[in-house]
Design goal:
It is a single chain. By secondary structure, this protein is mainly α. The protein has 18 helices and 4 strands. The strands form 2 sheets. The chain has a two-stranded antiparallel sheet with strand order 1-2. The protein has a two-stranded antiparallel sheet with strand order 3-4. Strand 3 and strand 4 form a beta hairpin. Helix 4 packs parallel to helix 6 and helix 14 runs parallel beside helix 17. The longest helix is centred in the first third of the chain and has 22 residues. It is globular. About 3% of the residues have low confidence.
């Protein structure tokens, strides 16, 4: 008779291998002296900052494959440094602002590097980078008028957005366009029109029997697309049109025995989903309260399951929806095991010499460093009623010195940087 292991699929073997690596780390941690445990529990803040700052100053030749993603590298590194409570020196900050200015297209939007075509993904990364830097010079460098023109050019007649001229359309494009427009105070009815209808058309064919959202019809539900779809529907005031019950049912099962989060069913744990799935939990905690809130006249009628009509669009202050979302109180308990997620991030994803990795056996990189730290923030503040309320010590895995900065989970920028940008752009005309 064949053994279970001989009949296992490749997916099962990979899962068992990762589980074995993770469990060995946990067993080793439990067997070492308490003083050694204390060191492993600490967020290696200084080492992370050194790793990140070095990468921002100069990257090795292996990074040439990411030449079309240079604003993303800026964002991953800058956001990670901000989450750790640190900042750049003036010279390096000016260099980043100047570089991103070279990526800004004369007709609006940001390319992946100087002279490259504007793209919604790198536009999102560039805007979040400049917001993270903050200050008048950084925020004033954004040509909002041309950017609005670019976003309109990317908008398709069916309500969705293309990632670039003649590019692909998906929920990710809707999120990057709407997120950027919202935070810059240029979100209007022209941009919002039919976005919800487009997403719902996709979701009805992509929201699987599990409840998550797929990238395209016939595909399996995916954490990144689920975050993008949910965040977009919140920002346009139509989140009540989603089947949130099925969505909750799907996302709560994405945390496995490794304590981390996976992006799809039967896929391996990955530290980046600490944010992509973790932020879905954070958003759903407050969506519950928004659906019950009928007091705010600018948003109270936006969560009843109907698209916004053109004749009532003048009553909606779109750019305030993201800001007002911060006022929603979370439910008493998070929808995931926040301590377990912190355990995975600190013991399995964190490298003591600096940086974070996908999972044991992988190399560190800036992408996973950014989203592991973002997920750590989500987990640490998951039991706080308000986004900016300091969590109790009992909400943290390890010492209280592990606490990172809170984020706005819709935009994934540090909260005080978002608030500065909101105040700055609210004083400018639409």
């Amino acid at each position: 008779m064949e053994s279970t292991s001989s009949r296992a699929t490749a997916t099962q073997r990979e899962q068992w291998m990762v589980e074995g690596q993770v469990f060995r780390i946990y067993e080793l941690f439990g067997s070492i002296p308490r003083n050694a445990q204390t060191q492993l529990l600490e967020l290696q803040r200084d080492n992370h900052i050194e790793y990140l700052t070095k990468g921002l100053r100069q990257l090795g030749p292996s990074f040439t494959v990411l030449d079309a993603n240079r604003p993303w590298l800026c964002y991953w590194i800058l956001h990670s440094i901000a989450l750790l409570g640190d900042a750049l020196d003036d010279e390096l900050e000016d260099n980043v602002i100047d570089f991103l200015g070279c990526c800004q297209d004369v007709n609006g939007g940001y390319g992946g590097g100087p002279g490259q075509m504007p793209h919604l993904a790198t536009t999102y990364a560039a805007i979040n980078s400049l917001i993270t830097l903050g200050g008048d010079r950084s925020l004033s460098s954004i040509n909002r008028h041309n950017l609005h023109t670019f976003l309109l050019r990317m908008k398709d007649r069916n309500g969705g957005f293309r990632m670039h001229d003649a590019g692909e359309m998906d929920v990710r494009a809707c999120y990057t366009a709407i997120s950027v427009a919202s935070v810059l105070n240029i979100l209007d009815y022209e941009l919002v029109k039919d976005v919800g209808n487009y997403i719902l058309r996709i979701i009805y064919s992509c929201q699987t029997y599990e409840g998550g959202i797929a990238g395209e019809p016939g595909s399996e539900a995916h954490g990144g697309y689920t975050f993008c779809g949910l965040a977009t529907m919140i920002l346009i005031g139509e989140v009540g049109r989603l089947d949130l019950h099925r969505l909750v049912n799907w996302v709560v099962f994405r945390q496995g025995v490794e304590c981390g989060l996976q992006g799809r069913t039967n896929k391996l744990v990955d530290a980046c989903y600490s944010f992509w799935q973790g932020a879905v939990f954070a958003l759903l905690q407050r969506v519950h309260e928004i659906n019950d809130d009928k007091k705010n006249h600018t948003t109270s009628n936006l969560f009843e399951g109907e698209a916004i009509k053109e004749d009532s669009s003048h009553l909606v202050e779109y750019h305030e929806i993201g800001f007002n979302f911060l006022e929603g109180c979370a439910m008493e308990e998070p929808l995931f095991h926040s301590m377990a997620l912190q355990q995975y991030i600190l013991l399995c994803s964190q490298l003591q010499e600096g940086g974070f990795r996908d999972k044991p056996g992988k190399q560190r990189d800036y992408y996973h460093t950014c989203y592991a730290l973002s997920g750590l923030s989500v987990a640490q503040y998951s039991s706080s009623k308000d986004f900016d309320s300091p969590p109790l010590h009992s909400a943290l895995f390890g010492p209280y010195s592990n606490l990172v900065e809170p984020i706005h989970p819709i935009f994934n920028v540090v909260l005080d940087r978002y608030q500065e940008a909101h105040e700055f752009f609210s004083g400018l005309p639409h």
